[in-house]
TrEMBL record:
<dbReference type="Pfam" id="PF03793">
    <property type="entry name" value="PASTA"/>
</dbReference>
<dbReference type="InterPro" id="IPR050515">
    <property type="entry name" value="Beta-lactam/transpept"/>
</dbReference>
<dbReference type="InterPro" id="IPR011927">
    <property type="entry name" value="SpoVD_pbp"/>
</dbReference>
<protein>
    <submittedName>
        <fullName>Stage V sporulation protein D (Sporulation-specific penicillin-binding protein)</fullName>
    </submittedName>
</protein>
<dbReference type="GO" id="GO:0071555">
    <property type="term" value="P:cell wall organization"/>
</dbReference>
<dbReference type="InterPro" id="IPR012338">
    <property type="entry name" value="Beta-lactam/transpept-like"/>
</dbReference>
<dbReference type="Pfam" id="PF00905">
    <property type="entry name" value="Transpeptidase"/>
</dbReference>
<keyword id="KW-0472">Membrane</keyword>
<dbReference type="GO" id="GO:0008658">
    <property type="term" value="F:penicillin binding"/>
</dbReference>
<dbReference type="InterPro" id="IPR005311">
    <property type="entry name" value="PBP_dimer"/>
</dbReference>
<dbReference type="InterPro" id="IPR001460">
    <property type="entry name" value="PCN-bd_Tpept"/>
</dbReference>
<feature type="domain" description="PASTA">
    <location>
        <begin position="588"/>
        <end position="647"/>
    </location>
</feature>
<dbReference type="InterPro" id="IPR005543">
    <property type="entry name" value="PASTA_dom"/>
</dbReference>
<comment type="similarity">
    <text>Belongs to the transpeptidase family.</text>
</comment>
<dbReference type="Pfam" id="PF03717">
    <property type="entry name" value="PBP_dimer"/>
</dbReference>
<dbReference type="GO" id="GO:0005886">
    <property type="term" value="C:plasma membrane"/>
</dbReference>
<dbReference type="InterPro" id="IPR036138">
    <property type="entry name" value="PBP_dimer_sf"/>
</dbReference>
Amino acid sequence: MSPYVVMRKRIAFLFFCVSAFLVVLIVRLAFVQLAQGAILSDKADESHYRGVPVAAKRGNIEDRNGEVLAMSVSTETVYAVPAQVRSSGRAEEIAHALSGLLEMGPEQVMERITKRSALEYVKKRVTAEVAAQVRALELPGIGITEDSVRYYPNSTLAAHIIGFAGIDNQGLEGIELTRDSELNGVPGAVLTEFAANGIPLPFANQMYVSPKNGNTVRLTIDKNIQAFAERELQKLMSGQGDNMNGQVPKSGTILVMDPNTGQVLALASAPTYDPNYYNNYDQSTRRNIAIQNGYEPGSTFKIITLAAALEEKKISPQEGFFDPGGVTILGKTVHCWKRGGHGSQTFTQVVENSCNPGFVAMGQRLGMDKFYKYLHDFGFGQKTGIEMSGEAVGILAGKKRATALDLATMSIGQTNNVTAIQLLTAVSAVANGGNLMKPQLVKEIVGPSGNVVESFEPQDVRRVISEGTSKTARQMLESVVTNGTGYRAFLPGYRVAGKTGTAQKVANGAYIQGEYIASFIAFAPADNPQLAILCVIDGVPFYGGSVAAPPVRGVLQDSLKYLGVEMDLKAPLTLGKPRLDMQIPPVKKAATVPSVLGLTLAEAEKSLKQAGFTVLTEGSGTVVQDQIPHGDSKVEEGSSVLLYLGSEAGAPTSGNWWAVEEEVDIDIETMLQMPWRQPLGQ
């Protein structure tokens, strides 16, 4: 081959290689420019743009009617760009200037403003006056950015449901924790162009990225019903409840639910705390007793035994039963609470009298397998799924080891351990026609613009009893209030069904003499239940009918009128059995509460007293910031209206409140000395 041809081939090969390289280069450049251009541009901006965060406002927490329970209030934060501070050569001077304004030590300020970081917060949540003073100093590397602080306008109201958020606006307890992702917004930033040495470039560009505020979480709670429950609970906790004789219980809870939907309308626990100042309270006050504490329910559990026995047709309301005063099983005697027993009676009277041997008979007729089936069907020994952290599951006696004696004591509400939310949920199934509903606390999530992002419907877990059984059980439980041990919950003109409960407290595996958990559970109207309510009082030497039924009556009375539930013309106005120790409150007319928002205390008191209401106040300001019940609400004539006071530009100050009613002097039943498990009936 001639040298000329070889040279041409080499030139052609070299040209091909160069062309291929150029093609690859062009393709790569096109890929970088077109496909990765935006990403690389953002990375380049990040390398020389530094942002000062602008906090997003955390979303509100509201009650079912849109009343604000938790909100974010604007505040300001002092920040430092350490590179600028160091390059200014005035770090010490800046530290001394800030320490006086921020009430921090110069060393602490110095450490923060010279730290090896792009941005450092010097102090969060300073007042507007302090922020203005810092701006006026025009210190190099020091700036002010917008921030927010969580504020709970109703002080202690619904504290155990709402929970609280920390200094960085992160949810720590309650709904603030469980719905943290929805409540949190997306922070924005003010971006400034910096050189490599951390100094802003001359004539630098600035960009503002707007923050996106968090969503609002709307609860099923009704602020007014919550206030009614907390009022009654605070009366008990201050020793002012009916029949308390000045004694103060260790703790208590009142739960209110719509039995048809499972929506929780109120959840009050005591002792309580103010989430605005949660650090000032002992951690025990933050415990949600209704969700996290288990207890032996006592006779309130007999509703479940009754429903199961009726469903399995093991008893009928008019069937006869003889109570000799006790029943002996495996050598142990389970006594009736009434010395000598109730004698001959129907099973309706067994329920009215809370007769222990009668309920033991129901459990025996059901048998172990059927009894445990209903325990599980009604949700005992398992979490209800309510949206609260730390829910307890309760404790059930192991079926394989359970004896006939265990079956007897379980039938009257001993041996097993339940939570208040479990019991109210189960009894609501008896009240609503037989459907076990999942307890619901969150109604919907609402976006910053007011649109509903997500709505939550009631959840039907399972059917546990028939409509017919539910109807029969409701009638028998109504008789408990009209003719039996629950008479202190009687409301003239309303059909109330309920059950008393008293359980001895257990410590170190033994029952404590003279110390009880008193409870009362009720629903109304009995023929078409709209409310189910449970009151549990821990650490009192009294029966449930004496101390737990009156607060249930108080909450039911105000709540039924508030909800507009009309009195039943066919409902009894007097008790079926005359009670010398029971003063039935007179039936009063409904009255409309005037709105006094924005008025001075003197003007508000004048308006409310002219309308026939009494006035309670919380706070030390001069202007009415909020009121419970709210304007245009219909409540009983002569009721108390709670006014939250504050300054015109501020918010109501915190404090404890409760309505004080005239006490009814009722004799306490003689305490019976009972052996072994000492089952109680009232």
